Amino acid sequence: MPYDGQGVFTRVHNWEEDAANDISILASRHDAEDDNFANGFNEVLCRDGRAAMTGNLKMGANKITGLANGTNTNDGVNKSQLDSLSTTLSSSITNLDNTVVKLSGNQTIADTKTFSSSPIIPTPATSDNSTKAATTAYVNSILSSSGGLATWSQGQNGYYKFSNGLIIQWGKATTGTVTLPTAFTSGTSYSIGAQLEGSGAGANDYGQLNSLTSTSFNWVMYSGSSRLFWVAIGY
Protein backbone atom coordinates (compact mmCIF):
# COMPACT_ATOMS: atom_id res chain seq x y z
CA MET A 1 0.00 0.00 0.00
CA PRO A 2 1.44 3.41 -0.97
CA TYR A 3 -0.04 5.13 2.11
CA ASP A 4 0.48 4.25 5.75
CA GLY A 5 -2.22 4.32 8.46
CA GLN A 6 -1.81 8.08 8.81
CA GLY A 7 -2.23 8.71 5.09
CA VAL A 8 1.48 9.40 4.50
CA PHE A 9 2.77 8.29 1.09
CA THR A 10 5.56 5.69 1.31
CA ARG A 11 8.03 5.05 -1.50
CA VAL A 12 9.17 1.56 -2.51
CA HIS A 13 12.79 2.49 -3.44
CA ASN A 14 15.18 5.36 -2.73
CA TRP A 15 17.64 6.02 -5.60
CA GLU A 16 20.24 7.72 -3.41
CA GLU A 17 20.29 4.74 -1.08
CA ASP A 18 20.59 2.44 -4.10
CA ALA A 19 23.57 4.43 -5.39
CA ALA A 20 25.23 4.37 -1.98
CA ASN A 21 24.74 0.60 -1.82
CA ASP A 22 26.00 0.00 -5.39
CA ILE A 23 22.55 -1.17 -6.51
CA SER A 24 22.06 -0.78 -10.23
CA ILE A 25 19.09 1.13 -11.57
CA LEU A 26 17.15 -1.70 -13.15
CA ALA A 27 13.89 -1.63 -15.11
CA SER A 28 12.24 -3.90 -12.53
CA ARG A 29 13.05 -1.49 -9.73
CA HIS A 30 11.78 1.45 -11.78
CA ASP A 31 8.55 -0.42 -12.55
CA ALA A 32 8.00 -1.17 -8.85
CA GLU A 33 8.50 2.48 -7.92
CA ASP A 34 6.30 3.74 -10.76
CA ASP A 35 3.59 1.21 -9.95
CA ASN A 36 3.65 2.47 -6.36
CA PHE A 37 3.18 6.06 -7.64
CA ALA A 38 0.25 4.88 -9.81
CA ASN A 39 -1.39 3.11 -6.89
CA GLY A 40 -1.02 6.26 -4.80
CA PHE A 41 -2.66 8.39 -7.47
CA ASN A 42 -5.52 5.89 -7.69
CA GLU A 43 -6.21 6.22 -3.98
CA VAL A 44 -6.63 10.02 -3.87
CA LEU A 45 -9.91 11.94 -4.34
CA CYS A 46 -10.23 13.57 -7.75
CA ARG A 47 -11.29 17.20 -7.56
CA ASP A 48 -13.84 16.84 -10.36
CA GLY A 49 -15.68 14.07 -8.48
CA ARG A 50 -15.38 11.53 -11.25
CA ALA A 51 -14.85 8.65 -8.81
CA ALA A 52 -16.82 7.66 -5.73
CA MET A 53 -15.30 7.36 -2.27
CA THR A 54 -14.41 3.82 -1.23
CA GLY A 55 -14.42 4.54 2.52
CA ASN A 56 -15.49 7.07 5.14
CA LEU A 57 -14.07 10.58 4.76
CA LYS A 58 -12.40 11.61 8.02
CA MET A 59 -12.39 15.42 8.37
CA GLY A 60 -10.23 15.52 11.49
CA ALA A 61 -12.33 18.33 13.06
CA ASN A 62 -11.96 20.42 9.88
CA LYS A 63 -14.81 22.09 8.03
CA ILE A 64 -16.31 21.28 4.65
CA THR A 65 -16.68 24.72 3.11
CA GLY A 66 -18.50 25.98 0.03
CA LEU A 67 -20.99 23.09 0.05
CA ALA A 68 -23.93 23.63 -2.32
CA ASN A 69 -27.54 23.14 -1.24
CA GLY A 70 -28.57 19.51 -1.23
CA THR A 71 -31.37 18.67 -3.63
CA ASN A 72 -31.51 14.88 -3.94
CA THR A 73 -32.35 12.32 -1.28
CA ASN A 74 -28.72 11.30 -0.62
CA ASP A 75 -27.20 14.81 -0.89
CA GLY A 76 -25.51 16.47 2.05
CA VAL A 77 -27.08 19.68 3.38
CA ASN A 78 -25.20 22.84 4.29
CA LYS A 79 -25.60 25.07 7.34
CA SER A 80 -27.66 27.62 5.40
CA GLN A 81 -30.25 24.96 4.66
CA LEU A 82 -30.31 23.84 8.28
CA ASP A 83 -30.66 27.42 9.52
CA SER A 84 -33.57 27.98 7.15
CA LEU A 85 -35.20 24.74 8.29
CA SER A 86 -34.69 25.70 11.93
CA THR A 87 -36.40 29.06 11.34
CA THR A 88 -39.31 27.34 9.57
CA LEU A 89 -39.68 24.78 12.36
CA SER A 90 -39.60 27.48 15.03
CA SER A 91 -42.34 29.39 13.21
CA SER A 92 -44.40 26.22 12.80
CA ILE A 93 -44.04 25.35 16.49
CA THR A 94 -45.11 28.86 17.46
CA ASN A 95 -48.16 28.57 15.21
CA LEU A 96 -48.98 25.17 16.68
CA ASP A 97 -48.72 26.60 20.19
CA ASN A 98 -51.38 29.13 19.21
CA THR A 99 -53.71 26.76 17.36
CA VAL A 100 -53.64 23.31 19.02
CA VAL A 101 -54.75 22.12 22.45
CA LYS A 102 -51.74 21.15 24.56
CA LEU A 103 -51.59 18.07 26.77
CA SER A 104 -50.15 20.05 29.70
CA GLY A 105 -49.69 23.61 30.91
CA ASN A 106 -52.06 26.57 31.11
CA GLN A 107 -53.70 27.66 27.88
CA THR A 108 -56.55 29.92 26.74
CA ILE A 109 -58.75 28.21 24.16
CA ALA A 110 -60.81 30.38 21.81
CA ASP A 111 -64.04 29.59 19.92
CA THR A 112 -66.45 26.70 20.43
CA LYS A 113 -65.06 23.17 20.68
CA THR A 114 -67.36 20.22 19.97
CA PHE A 115 -66.57 16.86 21.61
CA SER A 116 -67.72 13.62 19.96
CA SER A 117 -67.77 11.93 23.39
CA SER A 118 -67.97 13.07 27.00
CA PRO A 119 -64.69 14.65 28.22
CA ILE A 120 -63.31 13.41 31.54
CA ILE A 121 -62.12 16.20 33.85
CA PRO A 122 -61.03 16.45 37.52
CA THR A 123 -63.80 16.93 40.08
CA PRO A 124 -63.54 20.29 41.94
CA ALA A 125 -64.01 20.47 45.69
CA THR A 126 -67.57 21.28 46.77
CA SER A 127 -66.26 24.52 48.29
CA ASP A 128 -64.76 25.62 44.97
CA ASN A 129 -66.39 28.84 43.74
CA SER A 130 -64.22 29.32 40.63
CA THR A 131 -65.08 29.03 36.93
CA LYS A 132 -63.91 25.40 36.68
CA ALA A 133 -66.11 22.94 34.79
CA ALA A 134 -68.42 20.88 37.01
CA THR A 135 -68.34 17.08 36.75
CA THR A 136 -71.26 14.74 37.36
CA ALA A 137 -69.70 13.79 40.70
CA TYR A 138 -69.44 17.47 41.68
CA VAL A 139 -73.10 18.18 40.82
CA ASN A 140 -74.29 15.10 42.69
CA SER A 141 -72.23 16.09 45.70
CA ILE A 142 -73.68 19.61 45.72
CA LEU A 143 -77.22 18.31 45.33
CA SER A 144 -76.68 15.76 48.09
CA SER A 145 -75.29 18.32 50.54
CA SER A 146 -78.00 20.89 49.77
CA GLY A 147 -80.97 18.57 49.50
CA GLY A 148 -81.20 18.71 45.73
CA LEU A 149 -83.70 16.71 43.74
CA ALA A 150 -83.05 13.02 43.26
CA THR A 151 -86.30 11.61 41.81
CA TRP A 152 -89.82 12.81 41.11
CA SER A 153 -93.13 11.85 39.56
CA GLN A 154 -95.38 14.50 38.11
CA GLY A 155 -99.15 14.32 37.72
CA GLN A 156 -102.34 14.81 39.69
CA ASN A 157 -100.93 12.32 42.18
CA GLY A 158 -97.17 12.78 42.37
CA TYR A 159 -94.12 13.51 44.48
CA TYR A 160 -90.71 15.14 44.72
CA LYS A 161 -88.10 13.14 46.61
CA PHE A 162 -85.00 15.13 47.56
CA SER A 163 -81.56 13.56 47.96
CA ASN A 164 -81.49 14.45 51.67
CA GLY A 165 -84.60 12.28 52.21
CA LEU A 166 -87.30 14.98 52.25
CA ILE A 167 -90.46 13.96 50.36
CA ILE A 168 -93.25 16.24 49.21
CA GLN A 169 -96.23 14.47 47.64
CA TRP A 170 -99.78 15.35 46.71
CA GLY A 171 -102.96 13.94 45.27
CA LYS A 172 -106.75 13.95 44.89
CA ALA A 173 -108.94 11.44 46.73
CA THR A 174 -112.45 10.46 47.74
CA THR A 175 -113.59 8.71 50.90
CA GLY A 176 -111.58 5.63 51.71
CA THR A 177 -107.97 4.49 51.75
CA VAL A 178 -105.57 6.73 49.87
CA THR A 179 -102.37 5.10 48.62
CA LEU A 180 -99.39 7.44 48.64
CA PRO A 181 -97.54 7.89 45.32
CA THR A 182 -94.31 6.92 47.13
CA ALA A 183 -93.61 5.54 50.60
CA PHE A 184 -92.25 7.61 53.46
CA THR A 185 -89.11 5.95 54.79
CA SER A 186 -89.66 7.23 58.34
CA GLY A 187 -93.00 5.46 58.76
CA THR A 188 -95.78 7.80 59.90
CA SER A 189 -93.62 10.82 60.73
CA TYR A 190 -95.21 13.04 58.12
CA SER A 191 -97.87 15.73 58.03
CA ILE A 192 -100.88 16.09 55.73
CA GLY A 193 -102.73 19.23 54.71
CA ALA A 194 -106.15 18.82 53.01
CA GLN A 195 -108.72 20.91 51.20
CA LEU A 196 -112.28 19.86 50.28
CA GLU A 197 -113.56 20.29 46.73
CA GLY A 198 -116.94 19.74 45.10
CA SER A 199 -120.32 21.30 44.40
CA GLY A 200 -121.65 19.89 47.62
CA ALA A 201 -118.95 21.42 49.83
CA GLY A 202 -120.33 23.74 52.41
CA ALA A 203 -119.39 25.46 55.63
CA ASN A 204 -120.51 22.49 57.70
CA ASP A 205 -118.80 19.84 55.57
CA TYR A 206 -115.95 18.06 57.26
CA GLY A 207 -113.98 14.83 57.24
CA GLN A 208 -111.26 13.00 59.12
CA LEU A 209 -107.77 11.67 58.32
CA ASN A 210 -106.75 8.52 60.18
CA SER A 211 -104.94 5.19 59.93
CA LEU A 212 -101.66 6.70 58.70
CA THR A 213 -98.99 4.27 57.46
CA SER A 214 -95.80 4.82 55.48
CA THR A 215 -97.67 4.01 52.25
CA SER A 216 -101.28 5.19 52.83
CA PHE A 217 -103.81 7.02 54.95
CA ASN A 218 -107.59 6.82 55.39
CA TRP A 219 -109.98 9.67 54.60
CA VAL A 220 -113.51 9.59 55.98
CA MET A 221 -116.06 12.21 54.87
CA TYR A 222 -118.73 12.87 57.49
CA SER A 223 -120.77 15.49 55.66
CA GLY A 224 -121.35 16.34 52.00
CA SER A 225 -119.86 14.55 49.01
CA SER A 226 -116.78 16.66 48.44
CA ARG A 227 -113.50 15.25 47.19
CA LEU A 228 -110.20 15.91 48.91
CA PHE A 229 -107.02 17.60 47.62
CA TRP A 230 -104.12 16.75 49.92
CA VAL A 231 -100.39 17.49 50.37
CA ALA A 232 -98.08 15.40 52.57
CA ILE A 233 -94.57 16.38 53.74
CA GLY A 234 -92.12 14.17 55.59
CA TYR A 235 -89.21 11.75 55.39
Report what the structure shows.
Among the domains are: 1-60, no CATH class; 149-234, Sandwich (Immunoglobulin-like). 23% of the residues lie in helices and 20% in strands. The longest helix is centred in the middle third of the chain and has 21 residues, at 79-99. The chain is built from four helices and eight strands, in the order H-H-H-H-E-E-E-E-E-E-E-E. The chain is of the alpha+beta class and 235 residues long. Strands 1-2-3-8-5 form a five-stranded antiparallel β-sheet, with no helix packed on it. Strands 4-7-6 form a three-stranded antiparallel β-sheet, with no helix packed on it. A hairpin with a 4-residue loop joins strand 2 (158-162) and strand 3. The chain has helices spanning 15-20, 27-42, 79-99, 136-146; strands at residues 149-153, 158-162, 167-173, 176-179, 190-197, 207-210, 216-221, 227-234. The protein is rod-shaped and about 160 Å long.
Topology:
Blueprint: H1 15-20, H2 27-42, H3 79-99, H4 136-146, E1 149-153, E2 158-162, E3 167-173, E4 176-179, E5 190-197, E6 207-210, E7 216-221, E8 227-234
Antiparallel strand pairs: 1-2, 2-3, 3-8, 4-7, 5-8, 6-7
Percent helix range:
10-25%
CATH architecture of the domain at 149-234: Sandwich
Q: What integer value in Å does the Rg equal?
A: 51 Å
CATH topology grouping of the domain at 149-234: Immunoglobulin-like
Order of helices and strands: HHHHEEEEEEEE
Tally the helices: what do you get? 4
pLDDT averaged over residues: 87
- Number of distinct beta strands: 8
CATH level 1 name of the domain at 149-234 = Mainly Beta
How does the helix and strand content classify structurally?
A: alpha+beta
Poorly predicted regions are none
Strand order of the largest sheet: 1-2-3-8-5
